[in-house]
Amino acid sequence: MAAIDMLHLPRVRKEKHYRGFNPLNKDFSDEELGQRYRFGRESIEFIANELRADLERNTRKRTALSVEEQVMIALRLYGSGSQLQVVGDTMGYDKSTVSRVVRDVTDALVDRKDQYIKWPSESQKNINKRAFYEKAGFPDVVGCIDGTHVHIQAPTADEPAYVNRKGFHSINVQVICDPQGTCVFFLRSYSRTIENLVPSAISFPCSTMYRE
After folding, report:
1. How would you class 70 by CB atoms within 10 Å of its CB: exposed for 0-12, middle for 13-18, buried for 19 or more?
2. Looking at the whole model, is its pTM more than 0.70?
3. Buried b (16+ CB within 10 A) or exposed e, 176-208
C-alpha cells in the first residue's frame, strides 16, 4: 500500500532561475539570511566578489547560475549539513547541479585559504595576548581552542573509523581563534584518531578557514 501511495505523490517542481538571477535580491533580512546561510548580505557579497573570477560562467545559456547563486547554494549545504538532494529540493536546483556547485565553490575557497587565514606572527601574538588579557584578565593567551564533531554521511571506505563515541558518523574538528573570532588554525581528523594528532598539530599552522 505504501508503495502504491508513493506513486501518487506530487512531483517537486523545480523553480527556474535565469541568467543574472541574484538570490540576494529577494527580500530577506540579514537575520533571515543568517538563519539560512550563516552569513549576512554584506558577507555573502564579499565572498561572491572574491570568488567571481573562478565561478563566473563564460556562457550565453539563459539558465547559467550567477556567482551569488553558486555561493549561496554552497553556504546552504555547509551551514545546514543537509544532503545534496535536500538542498536542491529546498532551493529549486537539481541534485547534480548542487553537487557540481559545492565542489567548485569549495575548491575556490580552498585556493584562497592562505590569503586570509594565517598563523599569527610574533608581533600579532603579543597583540592577541594583550587583547585576551583585557577581555578576561588571563595572561599569555594567544588563542582560544575548541573542538566539535561535524556530522557526515557514512563513508564507504573505512566506515568504522568515522563512528564517534556518541554512535554517529562524524569528522572531529579542532579550531583555534584569535580575540576577534578569526580562525587561525584548523585541524580535522577521524573521531578515533584526533587525540593522537592534537599535541603535534598545535605547534604549526595547517589548513585554515575564516569565520566572520
Report:
1. buried
2. no
3. bbbbeebbbbbbebbbeebeeeeeebeeebeeb
